[in-house]
Specification:
Length: about 325
Amino acid sequence: MEPHTAPPSICSDTLGFFSNAILCMILSLPLFDARAEPPFSGTIFPFPDVITDSVPSRFEELTYKGQDNRLMFDRRINAFAVYFAHLFKVTYSDEITIEFQVNPEFNANEAEQIVEFYATVIGRIPRALRDHVATSWIHKGDELFGGGNNNLLIHTGSIAQTYIQLGILEEVFVHEAVHTSLDSTHAKSPGWLVAQQADPDFISDYARSFPEREDLAESFVPWLAVRCAADQIDPVDIATIKATIPNRLAYLDSLGLDLQPLDCGDSRIFRDRFETSTFKDCAECPAMVMIPSESFIQRAPESEPQSSNSERPQRTVDIPAFAISQTAVTFDE
């Protein structure tokens, strides 16, 4: 699929995130006349201050469980392999448990020190991103980290050391943990595809090059920057993020993700305005929740960097309150 081609059947009866009416309303809104170049090449390196060492880690306890065979992916051979790995049970104070599996090229003492270091860093990323992480594989080697497979993949060589020196290790784990915990549910969901189509552009070259695989992960760190660390980020970058991916930001807002241990303060107001109670129109009907009315300013202000006259004038768009199904609607419903 081309990056800006609308997904098929976007107003079908089986959509579960937005109602048909709101989908069609969003798609009918006038969009920017031309797509600009994405403002960033990637979204990890520009935002080292989204999560810092000052964020208290939820890491609680590490227990060495000995060695046993584990099937682990190793980028150095670009394949899965069975290793007689050092095994550590790591628990977090928010009821998350991860088994760290360490390549036996490390001795037991080295493995324990490495696990404690990385487990502490992982404990600083939002709980919602650790929710589906069951294991973490650790190897030597100058290779990129990875996410998916209910896992976080770590290579401890020069690339990892660069992440540490630049202060972006937490942001790297955020990106990879999005692949692990959110991609399967949201990366191809109707609501995300609608937001992707409605926004002026992709947030990064990397997201635009791989819209199905990388757009959600590339958008998540900027979302955290706007919602949880705006006072730590260059105001020009904050304005750029808001102008480039407003619908993606709104989609992520609406998920009600548990972002602890981050303190996002008033950024949770949008999420908290959603009704938690449900209702049904009939016994067989789906459970519905009310979405409150909202307004937003569409198109770019005169003061926005790199904007053009084709992106003006601005207009206020009012979205009335509406009810949507809490889950995907079946044919029977």
